[in-house]
Amino acid sequence: MSNQVSDLYILGQSVAKQLTGIGQEIRIDLDLQPNPNIDSGTIIGTIKDENGNPIPGAIVKIFDAQGNPIAHTFTDAQGNYTFSPFPPGTQYYISSIAPGFIFSPLQLFALQPRQQLQIDITLTSDPKANLSIIAGDVFTTTGEPIQDAIVQLFKVNQDQTETLIGTTFTNQTGQFLFMDVDQGTYRIRTSKFGYISDTSTILIDANRMIGKLVITLNVDPNASKGTISGYIKDDNNQPIANAVVTLYRVEADGKLTPIKFTRTNAQGMYLFSDVPNGNYKVKANKLSV
């Protein structure tokens, strides 16, 4: 830490005048402008790894007290950086990052007028530097985002078996994200009730650190079908087992069309599945033994 000598004025330049005669006298005046950076300081330093090796190409960034970025620069081949001129202040933060390293914690510092301040930073290697992400968007066939779709990530093993790595859900804009994904082949299964499920395959390697997918789900034509269930009881409110129950569709003209029949279970309950949208009635009876 040291104070630096600064120019009081901006280096000025006069107009040119010519001496033409013997013993001639000319006058050259020059008005100097105050140096606006007279009180500015300088910040220097070196960015190194845990072993003390300089890191070239690291970005060094300075923030104000509110976390707003003020300035940034890059280290040279020897890992050195310089900010100059830099305005004095009592509360600045400095940090650094480089490929393969973790973003360093913000370091508080103050810079006095005309001060040269040295701040060296040691970066920690990122153990997840070689891991990737898989991001995607899920849409309908008309381009509308699908929210709350289930997205499962499976890693394909060498024997073509699959191992479930993670499960997530799409957000309100149909987006999903898997982080810390190792290199390999993956299958992404996407599903939501009302749509036909989709399976996509993606390869993550050194040349593709970010996997991007756009998935389109088709409407399931059977998804609109529902179920109709109920109990068949006698006049004493007792369940009637093995009763025959017939399902009728109520047509637009009020006529009834039988479409399915079944029998009640021991608790007098019946169930019809895969029933299309519409109006329905049931009729039931039981033969004497």
Automatic annotation (TrEMBL):
<dbReference type="InterPro" id="IPR013783">
    <property type="entry name" value="Ig-like_fold"/>
</dbReference>
<keyword id="KW-0645">Protease</keyword>
<dbReference type="Pfam" id="PF13620">
    <property type="entry name" value="CarboxypepD_reg"/>
</dbReference>
<comment type="similarity">
    <text>Belongs to the serine-aspartate repeat-containing protein (SDr) family.</text>
</comment>
<keyword id="KW-0121">Carboxypeptidase</keyword>
<protein>
    <submittedName>
        <fullName>Carboxypeptidase regulatory-like domain-containing protein</fullName>
    </submittedName>
</protein>
<dbReference type="GO" id="GO:0004180">
    <property type="term" value="F:carboxypeptidase activity"/>
</dbReference>
<keyword id="KW-0964">Secreted</keyword>
<keyword id="KW-0732">Signal</keyword>
<dbReference type="InterPro" id="IPR008969">
    <property type="entry name" value="CarboxyPept-like_regulatory"/>
</dbReference>
<keyword id="KW-0378">Hydrolase</keyword>
